[in-house]
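Margin note from the TA: students keep mixing up input and output lines. Inputs are the sequences; the output is the structure of the whole complex. Example:
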Amino acid sequence: MPIKPISSRDNSLYKELKLLAASSQARRKEGRTLLDGVHLCESYLLQVGKPLLCIVGETAMRNDEVATILRRCDDLSAQTILLPDHLFNALSQVENGIDILFLIETPQLAQPPCLSRSAVLLDRVQDPGNFGSIVRSAAAAGIEQVFCSAGTTFAWSPKVMRAGMGAHFLLAIYEHVDLADLLERTDIPVVATSSHAQQRIYDLDLTQPVAWLFGHEGQGVADGLLECATHRVTIPHLGAIESLNVAASAAVCFFEQVRQRMTHYPP
Amino acid sequence: MPIKPISSRDNSLYKELKLLAASSQARRKEGRTLLDGVHLCESYLLQVGKPLLCIVGETAMRNDEVATILRRCDDLSAQTILLPDHLFNALSQVENGIDILFLIETPQLAQPPCLSRSAVLLDRVQDPGNFGSIVRSAAAAGIEQVFCSAGTTFAWSPKVMRAGMGAHFLLAIYEHVDLADLLERTDIPVVATSSHAQQRIYDLDLTQPVAWLFGHEGQGVADGLLECATHRVTIPHLGAIESLNVAASAAVCFFEQVRQRMTHYPP
């Protein structure tokens, strides 16, 4: 499929892409988003497949990694759009990156009827970097599902996806979930961290699947939800600081589970 | 000491504060920075003591937590400046926060001659949120020192300090450190994580003090430095993702050490 050049900022497709790049509301409404940079585009090709569109800047055309991606897009009959660098830069938030974007559809998944597989539940997590780091750690730890309450940052924004480093394509992510309702239909333990809890995370058996519950950066998990957790555990501290960043906390939890599983089921 | 109102944006002290708020270069040059919000100001009073100046917005004067901070500043003979809200807002990056700032001196510490206490070494870590999360986790894990290479984000920027949540005041932070040189003078093991390493972090004895080495978000630890580490370990993964965010990785390492120490030296 021939590469299609666009050179005018008044081109209707370009204007549509620019709106998606700038507006979180447009991304939600259209059910589409942009993947920024070589790594995310490679991950998408590997884990999902054909993008709606590949968009590349003129200078980036000379890059070897980009050439490989363009060949793969061509194999999949995905259209590639070529932009002058200045038009490309208006679509990208990555400075000094390699100028390639994918336009993709954000998956619209039907929520499963109950919690039965290893999962993360996010109650109003605000920061895109935290959200991205949590899904990245979750995917690395072999967790399969992410459930987000209303009020959690949008899972498919460019910032979240950059921080997620491709984890989005390995997990099933459900948004606008009524977590209280979901917690009534769970077949597995639900574990929340709380600095007020007595039980140490190291003393909880994590060799079986669990659902992890994390909350808002300032306020933590809402009280009503915290009561629905089957276990409240603390990450013990040795220093005089009250709590960890939510993404750091999540990483400690997920990899304590990995450690226990590897010890319990040696390879 | 009476509270001093400033109402003009042309006031020379206000102009000086505004420069510090806006310019990382000015903060480095002056050796001064601003702490933003109730939590950081409270931590500073508790861990360090008297600020150079307390700055408060008119509306925030009615807040109880602010009133407590102002009383403490008065006890310590620290000057408080009162600003109309619109002047205060031009100094602060926190939206919807409580309008209080401290002006403080950034500690200028003489670098210790060798590595002999538990420490974190940061090689060109770029992201303020990552840096802040790492020092927060380090302080919670009882680590005492942080050594930063040239090219690491400035430790005392408002963004880093917000993410650090007061950890800055519990740790000795050394900037512009020649890490290769420091690694030649170490009395303790130096541990770096690497996805190419064979040894699992869970199999390394971490009951004694170690220095942890973490690197640039994209490039990792520079090869020359990685070779100087006494141990290279991997955080084993169960999922199909290559690596963790550097702050997530640091949290897993620090709290694996906490776990081992708590197991080895039960309370």
